[in-house]
Each structure stands twice: as C-alpha cells, then as structure tokens.
Amino acid sequence: MAVKSTKLSDSESIQHEAGILSDFIGSPFVIQYLGEEITTIDDTSEEIFNLALGFAAGGTLDGLIQSYRGHGLPESDVRSYTRCILEGLLHIHNCDYVHCDLKPENLLLFPSDTSTSGSSSFVAKIADFGLTRAPKMIWMDGEARLGKPPWDVEPNSTLDDFIDMVAGEITPKIPTEISGLARDFLMKCLAVNSWERFTTQKLLLHPFVQEPQLSEPGHAK
C-alpha cells in the first residue's frame, strides 16, 4: 500500500482526487483507491489527511522509459501498455471524467496477470487525478515508443512554443524503424482534423493494440 499525505489545511487537491478515485473502484486500469483517514501528529496536534492507494511495485512508466536510455521500449510492451491506458481512459470517460494530465509520470506499473497484461509483465494503471491541464496522451505514447518526446522542441522551449507548433498543424515525425501498425496507430492519434482523429473507442479496435503477430518486428532499434 502507498499513502499520500498532507496537512489537512492543504489537502483540498488530494481530497478532490480521493472523491474521484472512489468512483473508479473495480477498474483494473486505474490505481486502486483503498480509503482515507485523518490522523494527528502527537507533539504538534496537527491534523494530516491520508489517502491510501495501491502500491506500484514497477514504479512509473517514465522510470521504465528512462531505463532504456533513449532506445525506446520493445514494441510488444508498448502495445500492452497502450491498451491498458486506453481501457483506463474509456472507463474514466464512461464515468463522466476527463483525466487532463496523462503522461508517463502519472502511469504506474503493477505486477500483472495474464488476463489483463498481454505480453508485458506489468499492467499500466492511470494515477494522479489532481491536475487540470489539457490531456497529454499522444505525448506519452510517442515518448514510450521513441524513448524521447515526439515533437522536435528545443531543450529550453516554453509551453507557448509547443502550443504554437500544435496550432500551426506541425505534427511529430514518425520514425520508419517502427512497425507499419505502430505508424498507422500514431497517425490515427495525431491527425490534425478532428474527424480523422480516432476516439478512444476506435483506438481500442486498432490492430496495434491487439495481440502482436509473430511476423511483425517486436523491438525498437
């Protein structure tokens, strides 16, 4: 079990997250909500709000990506994690919520079983429901596959620089070394026109997130 704790007087964000997570109990692709309580520090009588969550033994997806030192994850693992994330997003959307900050740091890895993981030894679960920025799903998926952010931004670029690139209909380069299915999946995610861009439901039906075929490449170069 993992516990998020903060002073009760500063706990509005965590209490908000606790309320949202309580609506997702039972989803295998969202971090598990285990309860909440208020405790008191004996020597100061200060009240602390505690949120109990499932413990991610595999760390974050960001940590896993960094461990590959820019080479990208095996494509079979990316398929599996992507499907987990899409399933989690669909559940969140069906509960009338939008995550709004989906990125590798907010995706936690839990030991898997064969019923939910596909080829990976971990299941990716969505966490951190306290932020309100625009969704970052496409950034996450491209970074996992490539081992780096998908847009070619300068190291000191600002958020405004990135927004200008997106508003100017500049899409990231899709590398040729990944499989045809992976390229097609990313193109469906990154389509500039909204009517061409796949929804979560449609992405779940894409062959890329189905069981990998033996004839397709399985590792990044």
The CA-CA distance between the termini, in Å, is 36 Å
Low-confidence stretches: 135-139, 213-221
The CATH homologous superfamily of the largest domain: Transferase(Phosphotransferase) domain 1
Order of helices and strands: EHEEHHEHEHHHH
The CATH architecture of the largest domain can be named as: Orthogonal Bundle
Overall geometry comes to: elongated
> Please, what is the average pLDDT?
79
Taken as a percent bin, the fraction of beta residues is 5-15%
Return the CATH class of the largest domain.
Answer: Mainly Alpha
Helix fraction? 25-40%
Number of domains: 2
Helix count equals 8
Radius of gyration equals: 19 Å
InterPro entries: Kinase-like_dom_sf, Plant_MAPKKK, Prot_kinase_dom, Ser/Thr_kinase_AS
Organism: Prunus avium (Cherry)
GO molecular function, one term: protein kinase activity
Pfam families: Pkinase (PF00069)
Structure description:
There is one protein chain. The protein has 221 residues and is of the alpha+beta class. The protein has two domains: 52 residues, no CATH class; 149 residues, Transferase(Phosphotransferase) domain 1 (Transferase(Phosphotransferase), domain 1, Orthogonal Bundle). The strands form two sheets. It has a three-stranded antiparallel sheet, with helices on one face. InterPro entries: Kinase-like_dom_sf, Plant_MAPKKK, Prot_kinase_dom, Ser/Thr_kinase_AS. Pfam families: Pkinase. This is Mitogen-activated protein kinase kinase kinase 17-like. It comes from Prunus avium.
